[in-house]
Amino acid sequence: MSSSPQSTAPPSFEAAIFSSGKHPSPATPTEKITVEAKAKSFDDTSEKTAVSTTSSAKASPSPSIHEVDTEKAERSLADDDKALAQYLVPTLPKGVKTARKKPASLWIRFRVWYNPYRMLFTFVFTLNMVGIFLACIHHFPYAEHHGAALALGNIVSAVACRNELFLRYLFWVIVKVFQKWTPLWVRIFWTGFLQHIGGIHAGSAASGVAWFIFIVVRSFQNHVAKHTPKIVLGWGVITVATCAITMFAAAPWIRANHHNVFERHHRFAGWTAVAFVWIFVCVTDAVSAEGGFTGSGRRLADAQEFWYSLFITILIAIPWFTVRKVPVEITT
Question: In terms of Cα–Cα distance, which of 243, 288, 248, 294 is closest to 269?
């Protein structure tokens, strides 16, 4: 057992009087009695003060480091709450849809609605529609002979815009090239482009379906003159229908209100469409000028449609080879 340290006795009244170093003059008996009484009173008061100080020290110890840190954290949170209070959206009365006294102008509402996503969609889709129009009036010879290549090229673009590996490299290149030396408006432009690249995905997918419809319609129009077999026409219709289901399943209204329908059809119909595209490409390139079939693999390998189909398959397969299984702990 450790012994408690001895407390130092409080100074006596006489010691307090003589602490100045001056010796007092001799006192009379009456003064001596008075001095002794005062000294006794001083000693009692000093003892009470010492006991009170000791008990108060035991009752209220000095705050620990943890308590100080907790108090600082609470004060910091309180300051953060005060700073964020100005950003809180007030609760509106029932039936009131906006806190604005004056509604926003039509131009402002249009600018908010017509965001970079819709701008990119408009650009891609309009560009392809111009190409289809020129092909319809016979001013686009390449589309007359390689309409399937244009359709599959758009599908490659659509799939790439949703491929993680492609997006990683695209983000890396744009950040490295435009990060430091470009003006602010250039960086804002590229930031908006990267955040709304889904507009290219949607525009390319819709354009690819439109090109498929164009080549199938042309195949029906010229099937007599070109001796197109019925199997080519049939697979063309099946491919267009499957791609159209994949596209319409991703419509904003369906995604918002029937998300499971979107997930099932956009994924499974999309994978099915890839298989049908392969069949359509192989059957189309195997047709000879006389309407028969040839088994030349070299002719298939030389076709642009073959390589576009291969790129689509690779882009879709990459996530399945890069994903890994990790343990997940669910907490509530």
Answer: 243
